[in-house]
Amino acid sequence: MTDPAPARLVVLVSGSGSNLQALLDASADPAYGAQVVAVGADRDGIAGLDRAAAAGVPTFVDSVKAYETRDDWDAALAAHVAEFKPDLVISAGFLKLVGAEFLAAFGDRYINTHNALLPAFPGIHGPRDALAYGVKIAGATLFFVDAGVDTGPIIAQVAVPVLDDDTEDALTERIKVAERAQLVDFVGRLVREGWTIQNRKVRIP
Ligand code: GRF
């Protein structure tokens, strides 16, 4: 029997793209079962786009400023992503909330990785907020995106310790190491094995 074609991943980024790089590296192995077919960004000049170009992966940029309304931007982003016929769309450090049109098109297969143990510390300063609160355990959450801010059904979580002398940078980096491994592991499992969601419970058979 021939192997099925690899699942098609579109990855959205806004920054350094280390999560993207982990997916690019993993997909070099055919047994991983997925391939990054495009990388989208909401801004130019970021390392994430350079990483995609270095890997020979097509890129596109949809900046909110380039559109008259946020809905126009959302529709353009959805159209760009759709061109690449993704099986899974991955927000990996993408700093924009998508809108109704994007969710109508991809809400059943749009996932995000967040650098906190949700539902604690949603938003863009997960490690900073966790440190300020004084928690002893931090981590990362992989989830399906819904219309809320970091509220969708949880696929996986990974914990790391918070050390007494942690700085925001040190904690952020410790989380990112665990987060990347979790992302690679679970994206592979989702595309190879499929999933169900019932009453917020995500199951990978
Ligand atoms: C990740 O830690 C993600 O949780 C947060 O931003 C970081 C993105 O890092 N929202 P990178 O661009 O993948 O290196």
UniProtKB/TrEMBL annotation:
Keyword Transferase included in the entry's annotation: yes
EC code(s) of this entry: 2.1.2.2
InterPro entries found in the cross-reference section: Formyl_transf_N, Formyl_transf_N_sf, GART, GART_AS
Protein keywords: Purine biosynthesis, Transferase
UniProt-annotated binding residues for N(1)-(5-phospho-beta-D-ribosyl)glycinamide: G17, S18, N19
Keyword Kinase recorded: no
Site residues, Raises pKa of active site His: D150
Domain annotation Formyl transferase N-terminal: ranges: 8-185
Reaction equations catalysed: N(1)-(5-phospho-beta-D-ribosyl)glycinamide + (6R)-10-formyltetrahydrofolate = N(2)-formyl-N(1)-(5-phospho-beta-D-ribosyl)glycinamide + (6S)-5,6,7,8-tetrahydrofolate + H(+)
Domain of life assignment: Bacteria
Biological pathway: Purine metabolism; IMP biosynthesis via de novo pathway; N(2)-formyl-N(1)-(5-phospho-D-ribosyl)glycinamide from N(1)-(5-phospho-D-ribosyl)glycinamide (10-formyl THF route): step 1/1
Catalytic site: H114 (proton donor)
Binding site for (6R)-10-formyltetrahydrofolate: R70, L95, K96, L97, V98, N112
GO MF, one annotated term: phosphoribosylglycinamide formyltransferase activity
NCBIfam families tied to this protein: PurN
Stored PANTHER family: PHOSPHORIBOSYLGLYCINAMIDE FORMYLTRANSFERASE
Function of the molecule: Catalyzes the transfer of a formyl group from 10-formyltetrahydrofolate to 5-phospho-ribosyl-glycinamide (GAR), producing 5-phospho-ribosyl-N-formylglycinamide (FGAR) and tetrahydrofolate.
Family note: Belongs to the GART family.
Name of protein: Phosphoribosylglycinamide formyltransferase
Organism: Paractinoplanes bogorensis
